[in-house]
Write a structure and sequence with these properties.
This protein has two helices and no strands. The chain is mainly alpha-helical and 85 residues long. The protein has one domain (2-80). The chain is rod-shaped, with a radius of gyration of 21 Å.
Amino acid sequence: MQKALIALATTVALLAAGTATAQVGKAASEATDAVQHKIDQKRADSDAKKSGPVGKAVNKVKSGYHKNRSKNSTQKAKQSLKNAG
C-alpha cells in the first residue's frame, strides 16, 4: 500500500514538473513574439517617417497593430509564468 502511494505521489510530482516546464516554454515563446512585434512596430514607425501621406497612414496602422500584439504577447508570457509557479 505504501509503495502504491509513493508511486502515485511521484507520478503526480512528475506531471506537475512537466506542466511547469511547458508553461515556462510557452512564456519564452510569447516573450519572443512580443519582442518581434516590438521590432516590427519600430520598423513601421521608421518607414512612416520616410513615406508620403498614404505610406504614413499605412505604417501608422501597422505600428499600432504591432504595439497591441506586443502588449498582448507580454501579458500572455506573464500569465504563463504565473501558471508555472
